[in-house]
Design goal:
- This protein is mainly beta.
- Helix content is 0%, strand content 54%.
- It is flat and about 55 Å long.
Length: 78
């Protein structure tokens, strides 16, 4: 099953892919606002979504990745 929800301005979106019989669920929360971060209440939980980013929720609950919070490991070579 695929579900989609949009805010009234279409700047905040949630797309959910779910197989209830297998207890599998994956959601993508997006904030298309170019200037303001947002807080989304999704399935009763608050999720902070920075502007112009997408959060991936495993189990439709836990944020495991956000496109704006990527940290890079750098190595300095001497």
């Amino acid at each position: 099953m695929i579900y989609s929800q949009y805010s009234s301005t279409f700047l905040l979106q949630a797309h959910t892919f779910e197989l209830p019989e297998d207890k599998l669920c994956l959601s993508f929360l997006s904030n298309n606002n170019t200037g303001e971060d947002g807080t989304v209440i999704f399935r009763g939980e608050k999720h902070y979504v920075p502007s112009r980013s997408v959060s991936i929720l495993v189990g439709c609950k836990n944020v495991v990745y956000n496109t704006k919070r990527v940290c890079l490991l750098t190595l300095n070579r001497n």
